[in-house]
Amino acid sequence: MSSYATPPRTTGRLKRPFGTLYYEVTGSGPALLFAHGLGGNHLSWWQQVAHFAPHYTCVTFAHRGFAPSDAIADGPDPADYADDLAALIDHLKFSDVRLVGQSMGGWTMLEYTLAHPDKVKALVLSSTSGTLDRRGSDPSGGKNYDAWLKDADAKIADGMAKGIHPAVGASAAKRWPALHLLYRSIDEMAGTLDKVKLREGLRRTATRTLADLKTFRVPTFLIAGGEDTVFPAFLASAIAANLPCGEAEIISDSGHSPYFEQAATFNALVDAFLARQR
Q: Which residue, 151, 11, 157, is CA-closest to 88?
């Protein structure tokens, strides 16, 4: 009879100027770090850690202001996220890293990569363009983005009236009510964090243009959900086409959280992408 040994796992708190940053390290092998979105925390990646830990050292953390990291009186500024990640990577003494960022986590991962391109072996941006200006990245000059936004806002309003979280969406909530419940529960762990204010901070700091990335040679994989009402899926392909080492994949039957809703498909795509960078 074969035996199964669970991957090694440790937890920690890194002292930062705002307080402490909570993190977890699971598995062994090359370093693979995950940054969650506005509706999540370190627990958001439960399906990825279980999958990747046998072959990678998986690191998850809660962004500053998100429990169980320390709260911040006036709320976090996303401009500080990349420095927190840099401090965590230095603390864990990783010589190189592979990064996965979901939605808000794209701000963290893209900015870190731009500041430390020689340390990043691969970058995955899930349902996000990070600090790139969305409308400015639209090849139609904003026409397609504006049309998408009008339709998306209407769908979000309709869903929220029915108790559906926008980061999951109506289709996924109907197909996987247990996942929808879990997502909402993780989201609520943020407590009194003012997410409206934080969302404004994300918009304020998303000012980069594709011209800023014309010499960006870190292999980058953009994944998006075809049913997403938070991030326009068509931008993933448009941005990838403008990157020197960009790829994109649209998961047609997923909303804003493909890593959560379609974990098996998401994990397989990321697995294959990482394998191509070895």
A: 11
